[in-house]
Amino acid sequence: MDLADYLQHQSERVNAALNRWVPPESAEPEIIHRAMRYSLFAGGKRLRPILAMAAAEAIHPACTGIEDAACALEMIHTYSLIHDDLPSLDNDDLRRGRPTNHKVFGEAMAILAGDALLTLAFEVLASLPHCPEDRGIRILNEVARSSGTIGGMIAGQVHDLQGEGKSPDTTLLEKIHRAKTGALLRASVRLGALYAGASDTQYESLSRYGEHIGLAFQIVDDLLDIEQSSEQLGKTAGKDAAQKKITFPAVYGVDPSRRMAEAQLAAALESLRPFGESAHWLAEIARLIVRRKT
Amino acid sequence: MDLADYLQHQSERVNAALNRWVPPESAEPEIIHRAMRYSLFAGGKRLRPILAMAAAEAIHPACTGIEDAACALEMIHTYSLIHDDLPSLDNDDLRRGRPTNHKVFGEAMAILAGDALLTLAFEVLASLPHCPEDRGIRILNEVARSSGTIGGMIAGQVHDLQGEGKSPDTTLLEKIHRAKTGALLRASVRLGALYAGASDTQYESLSRYGEHIGLAFQIVDDLLDIEQSSEQLGKTAGKDAAQKKITFPAVYGVDPSRRMAEAQLAAALESLRPFGESAHWLAEIARLIVRRKT
Question: pTM for the complete prediction?
Answer without folding.
Answer: 0.95
